[in-house]
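User: My advisor, Dr. K., asked me to get a structural model of this assembly before our group meeting. I'm new to this, so sorry if the format is off. These are the inputs:
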Amino acid sequence: QSKKQVYNFDSSSHHGLLITNKGLELIKENLGTIPLFDKSLAQTKAEIDAIIVEEIEVPIPKDMAGGYTHTQHKKNYDVVQKAGVLFQIYGDEKYATYIKDMFMEYAQMYPKLPLHPETRSYSRGKLFWQCLNDANWLVNMSQGYDAIYDWLSPKDRKFLETKLFKPFALFLSVENPQFFNRIHNHSTWGNAAVGMMGLAMRDNQLVNYALYGLPEDSIDANAVDNDGGLIKKPGQDAGFIANIEEAFSPDGYYTEGPYYQRYAMYPFLAFSVALENTVPELKVLAYKDSVQIKAVYALIDLTDSKGGFFPLNDGQKGMSFYNNALVNSVDIAYHYGSKDPELLAIAEIQNEVTLDDAGLAVALGLKRNEIQPYQKRSVNFTDGPKGNQGGLTILRSKEDSDLELVFKYSAQGNSHGHYDKLSYSIYENGDEVIPDYGLARFVNINSKNGGGYLKENTTWAKQTIAHNTVVQNETSHFNGDFKTGSSFHSQLHFQDLSNDLIQIVSAREHNAYEGTEMLRTVAMLSPKEGMKPIIIDIFKLQSKNANQYDLPFYYKGQLMDYSVDPVSESILKPLGTSNGYQHLWKEASAVTNSDLSKVTWLHNNLFYTLSSKTSVGDSLLFVRQGANDPVFNLRREPGIIIRKSNARDAIFVNIIESHGTYDAVTERAENTESIIDKIDIIQNTGTYTALEITYKDDNSNLLIISNLKADSSEKHSLTLNGTSYSWEGPYYFINR
Amino acid sequence: QSKKQVYNFDSSSHHGLLITNKGLELIKENLGTIPLFDKSLAQTKAEIDAIIVEEIEVPIPKDMAGGYTHTQHKKNYDVVQKAGVLFQIYGDEKYATYIKDMFMEYAQMYPKLPLHPETRSYSRGKLFWQCLNDANWLVNMSQGYDAIYDWLSPKDRKFLETKLFKPFALFLSVENPQFFNRIHNHSTWGNAAVGMMGLAMRDNQLVNYALYGLPEDSIDANAVDNDGGLIKKPGQDAGFIANIEEAFSPDGYYTEGPYYQRYAMYPFLAFSVALENTVPELKVLAYKDSVQIKAVYALIDLTDSKGGFFPLNDGQKGMSFYNNALVNSVDIAYHYGSKDPELLAIAEIQNEVTLDDAGLAVALGLKRNEIQPYQKRSVNFTDGPKGNQGGLTILRSKEDSDLELVFKYSAQGNSHGHYDKLSYSIYENGDEVIPDYGLARFVNINSKNGGGYLKENTTWAKQTIAHNTVVQNETSHFNGDFKTGSSFHSQLHFQDLSNDLIQIVSAREHNAYEGTEMLRTVAMLSPKEGMKPIIIDIFKLQSKNANQYDLPFYYKGQLMDYSVDPVSESILKPLGTSNGYQHLWKEASAVTNSDLSKVTWLHNNLFYTLSSKTSVGDSLLFVRQGANDPVFNLRREPGIIIRKSNARDAIFVNIIESHGTYDAVTERAENTESIIDKIDIIQNTGTYTALEITYKDDNSNLLIISNLKADSSEKHSLTLNGTSYSWEGPYYFINR
Ligand SMILES: [Ca+2]
Ligand SMILES: [Ca+2]
Ligand SMILES: [Ca+2]
Ligand SMILES: [Mg+2]
Ligand SMILES: [Mg+2]
Ligand SMILES: [Mg+2]
Ligand SMILES: [Mg+2]
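Assistant: The format is fine. Below is the predicted structure of the whole assembly, which you can bring to the meeting.
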């Protein structure tokens, strides 16, 4: 374990955890003339002024999340943090006194506190049922302590540090190494809490534990957490720096997805800013090519056009860049980053700033009208600490239309990952079109399993069939085994996001099903200049064995039309018995021929069509979620499954179009029909796949994919139907 | 048939169908300074200027609605109407020339035209498949003709009138009495078309046909239209005046509901305004106590808080006061009514005015900032021409909350009526909470039965089980027989919308099921000052026979919690075989005891609870729409059916609460539980029903309903559990 003694605080006054001395001067200078900061400050002042006249309540810990004692301790740390800000800005001692009184009550109680009575956590806390919440408490309290540090008498400081803060920090670190000494967002919170209190206390030991981990932890090599995740690989580094290293890919992508990244960002940035303000020579924000700042951009880029995070892995839908953690992240990325005027556009939508140096900088930038529109473009993220564990591509349409496709070929995503290799979801105007189910949980809703994960998260939401990707033989990727899934990742084959005619990405997965190679290529292109783009999806499989392949497309809305002839079920039965199939009702099914099979639906007054190039003997299954759901945990959303039976090699070619509109006020329906006339698979070998797509106006596109070689300078030539084509790079596309 | 010769036009210039001469002066005076008028005018000018440079197309009629010739003829009349406006305002002859050229092309074609080739209408048109559309054409063309009348040479006028307009008007009247001489919205269009062209042509014969009907029609007493509606009762008056008389209740309610009223209002008001402008002494808008103006207010009051019409009868959801017909109605009601500043608030939301005297008046009112908020209050509408055929009550919450309940105890509603006696639907913030299914049709969406009514409109949407009201023995009201249903109506028992503590309405239905008397009382009340109100629903049945009673509550959203213990179905079967039951999947069922049965769901991040006072042996059925729906015509929406089996007399007491919130960004859930602790039915006799509702804070309400006597001065006294109560009027309520 490399130990670095970087801290040697002098005893002079400093404030680094909330507002710096320099920031404070600037705030005082500008107060009353910086609308967004003034507004946020007024809100906080009104809120806190109303609270601090009430009696302080520090109850003996008892309840789970949602219960009284849990909520009260949460409220307490929130109030202390905000009162600290107000004390710094206004200098009114009522805030300092309130904070001190609160601290004193905790200092009375803490030394005698046993572990929290609720036993279900792998790391039980004292104030809360899990150390994680205790760490949230300490992060906020460290900020409050920092704010009143100079105001407190040395005697009070000593009392508080001895009775409360140091024991609290040691509890979260040396007494709970399985919580503190991991590469995990829990540990990031633990590290930040201990490190920030260390900075506030000028305690070099705590800061060093936080930055570089505990030198000893004796964690069992097989120990797992409540999610079944391994606590620690032998020999793995721990501490804050190691967590920065391991948490983000070089592009700033967080393997658990944006929902968890949002939660994880706060301790990363709060501690980093505290370090930046107190030990700037550590350059913690510049670490790993400024990956924490990149991560803030990644978070924004991982939102739909209404600001909602794409619900990757166990992400709860509805979480968005309006969350407080994102206000904090955006302000920090602006102030400690490059003062990017595009970030001001996000801050303006958030309509709130943090009450610190960063929030001030944003408010000043907005006041000076330096704002520029935030340009969300198609973007590619690598996954894995080194960026070599697959990734994620977002295709975004240009100009007038607002289509987004999120293609996932990443690593497993830790315990929050889903078996969703090569799956994608589609959004239009920020609304789901081809959704990812998200998670099966109602966070903090007590009646749904106390707000915790539902059984259906495992039996449905994580399963492959819950995603828009191929399922082989009705089993999930890696047989749904977390350990196996965690040891593999998909691979980018190629991508090109800079071609004006077509945006294209291709990725492969060879491990999800042993002996089966999967290559999926997804492209967004406009059939004609100025037209809304369509999505072309080529899913190629090659296997040693004959298999059943199912490719589902979940959709939102109501079926309007289809070219097939479905037989509907008079009694609904589950589609299968396990791996998520038990949760699907089969509503109808249709056999297909070698033509196009089209299905059109209406959602949000927009018409969509899935055009599927099917073969004789394929079938279309019309399914709906909700079977074997005795307590109504699942949404009743529909899907179409394209099934190929007894196939060794197979190719699914699908086109998704957003083509028409309905206006319920004028009752006008426009462009209600798909413009796709034909899809011809001209060639499909191990080496090349060539498609011709013909539109009803007789225009057509030719798309050739190099299935093996992805080098952009590689020369290819191929003769198709007597015409020879030559090109460089992994694909060829023409509009004709 | 009473004939009145009221017209004797002089030959001097007049314009009465679009803009009056006086209006034109005012418009010219104010142009450029009346923002909303200027904007609407600029939009129209831009639209028409782009169209009139194209070649005029007057194709030989061939297509159905949605097809080319249909759409083109529609477009033509729309352009002529707007070009007429532009010619009047700008005086630019290019508009007049365009209109004249268009007229000439029609005049060439019309004399040789046979009936439209499509034969499915009971009144086939010539330009369109039905006379109704031909009448739409003539209304608009009469306005265009009026606009250029003075500009045309007498020779051209004579030619157009002889070849086109008079024959067209006679075709719609004397040649199609079954279309023209009815009490029906088709006839209103026919009357307006013929009358307006009569006014434009100064043709007394046409105007008199329009106002008072054809003197002779020889309509078969058994003739029916395409909806199965009787064409004409023997001896019934016809013509425009009779249609005004019969179409609206004295309160302005239109028995078919707001969706059809919106469509019907245009010809009523267009012709009335034309008459008002040309023959003001007729005072047509003052007719029947200004019922047409009242009808405009009724239309607005029949919208939810987002402006969408409540989907009564065959109403398509999404239709709203943003519709053009409502822009026209609101402007006319403002200008020809009392210049009500509250109407300006609607006009402002519509963000558009008509380009005529009325629209000018509105734009001027808005410019002068005379706008007042439109106050939507609880309101009661009678149904039937004389106001004695039941009615409809809308309960609206006051102050901070935005709950609306629409209780329907009206007449059948003609061929568009549903078997929905004593049903209600509930809205919050303009969104459905307890929805009415609406109609099963996708208007103008070709892939859904050509945009026409779907089979499921009859088999599901009209059936009683599709509504939130009691179904006896799995049969619909009146056995689903239109003729029987049309000969009865429910009856208001009492209502009180002016009590600060409680808003209450009670209505009875004795004919829907022979031998069964139904009395439903619905109240909205706040359990405590400042709290969002709850809805109390008491449905009392008395029957000669033992029956099964089903009371469904359809809801939006997802189940979160319940106090019962449902057994869920591993295979879904339809709940029944007919009368709509065949379209419900039974997902689960629970038996109840004599406690409260509670079901809580989440919708739009709001928590709702249905608390049902059930008896031993009652059951709760958890159902979902969509069984026996082979072409996916139905939405998959859920419902809870409370079933009482083998009961002669029965009482359903239900409370619906909107009590909690969820915030997906902060992940905070608040007030997730119902506050109802107990419902006690203290007394339930033929004479009185007394309820005590106890809340979890031990407050309670006592509500006593007089089941027989509704007189507000009637004195009652009753002893309940040893306490005696005395009061006046049909109900007693205290908060304690
Ligand atoms: Ca082309
Ligand atoms: Ca109780
Ligand atoms: Ca009370
Ligand atoms: Mg996933
Ligand atoms: Mg997923
Ligand atoms: Mg109805
Ligand atoms: Mg209905």
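One thing worth pointing out at the meeting: Residues B 312-313, 418, 420, 436 surround magnesium ion (ligand 6) (CB under 6 Å).

User: Perfect, thanks a lot.
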